[in-house]
Specification:
8-stranded parallel beta barrel, alpha/beta, single chain, HMG_CoA_lyase_AS, binds 3-hydroxy-3-methylglutaryl-coenzyme A, 8 strands, 300 residues, lyase, HMGL, metal-binding, globular, hydroxymethylglutaryl-CoA lyase activity
């Protein structure tokens, strides 16, 4: 059976914008539960400035506190060498650098231009490689920017190609504010795959306008097989006002299983994990599948 690799964003993208501090033991509990559901790639922490994103300040404690499961990759965001060194000390299995297709977003998110971000990443990639770590590269605002509006597919392709040539193993394409639609997603992917092999591309779609599943279906039809998602649809970006979370992992798994695509994820367990974390955060569950799960007897 054809499979899709899911990269779980809940503990990082999902929690980074929570207004109240989420206790470290809850973050650890979330990562462990997600691994128990069968998710094999979990972005567990972020080593960014605690002044910029205070919620992620305990990333080291999270990474060192989890009971690791064999075969699971626990990754972390590392915007610079300073972040990478802490991530290495905490035992991250994989790290990720992040930039954007739009200058304004890059400046607000990581306080530098796109060109400067790529310069910053060069030593990060070098050290990560020396330590045998895979590196992911994120491109934000691939289907729209909160400050610049529409983004040309060629601009996304340029930045994705630059990250790939710098040595990133995989490029994740972020619809940060969820304004994309399937036609735009296909046009963007068609441009990017001229620069980066399709097998190295991931879709990282937020669901602000309710388009994420449609956009995912469109890129799946183009052959893309790596998807980022967040349990219970947790999340939002601190530098994209009003943007909601990533598409909910439960909804993506329901879609993929319905298409006959394997994920290795136990959906029933995932639904319970989504409910558990929503309860812990006092949040409404952002997964439609999570909300509907007990109402029907026929499940894929
Ligand atoms: C990138 C920086 C650090 C530049 O921040 P800066 O202020 O330009 O950096 P700096 O090098 O001038 O350092 C200033 C201070 O920050 C400290 N610092 C510097 N680096 C680190 C570090 N790694 N860890 C801890 N502390 C750090 C450094 O030590 C210093 O401390 P001071 O001497 O003033 O006390 C900052 O802008 C930052 O942390 N930004 C946060 C960005 C962020 O986390 N955004 C959300 C994640 S990205 C995202 O969600 C999008 C994505 C990936 O999901 C895809 C999508 O959906 O589009």
């Amino acid at each position: 059976m054809d499979s899709v690799r899911l990269v779980e964003m809940g503990p990082r993208d999902g929690l980074q914008n929570e207004p109240a501090r989420v206790p470290t033991n809850i973050k650890i509990g979330l990562v462990e539960r997600l691994a128990d559901c069968g998710l094999t790639h979990i972005e567990a922490a972020s080593f960014v400035s605690p002044r910029w994103v205070p919620q992620m300040a305990d990333g080291g404690e999270v990474l060192t506190g989890i009971h690791r499961k064999d075969g699971v990759v626990y990754s972390a965001l590392t915007p610079n060498l300073q972040g990478l060194k802490v991530a290495l000390a905490a035992g991250a299995d994989e790290v990720a650098v992040f930039t954007a297709a739009s200058e304004s977003f890059c400046q607000r998110n990581i306080n530098c231009s796109v060109a400067q971000s790529l310069e910053r990443f060069t030593p990060v990639l070098q050290l990560a490689r020396e330590r045998g770590l895979r590196v992911r590269g994120y491109v934000s605002t691939v289907l729209g920017c909160p400050y610049e509006g529409d983004i040309a597919p060629a601009a996304v392709a340029r930045v994705a190609g630059a990250l790939y040539r710098l040595g990133c193993d995989e490029i994740s394409l972020g619809d940060t504010i969820g304004t994309g639609t399937p036609k735009k997603a296909i046009a963007m992917l068609s441009a990017v795959r001229q620069e980066v092999p399709l097998a190295r591309l991931a879709a990282h779609f937020h669901d602000t306008y309710g388009q994420a599943l449609a956009n995912l279906y469109a890129v799946l039809e183009q052959g893309l097989r790596i998807i980022d998602s967040s349990v219970a649809g947790l999340g939002g970006c601190p530098y994209a006002k009003g943007a909601t979370g990533n598409v909910a992992t439960e909804d993506v798994v329901y879609l993929l299983h319905g298409l006959g695509l394997n994920t290795g994820v136990n959906l029933d367990q995932l639904v319970h994990t989504g409910r558990w974390i929503s309860l812990q955060l006092g949040r409404e569950n952002g997964s439609k599948t999570g909300l509907a799960w007990d109402n029907h007897s026929r499940k894929p």
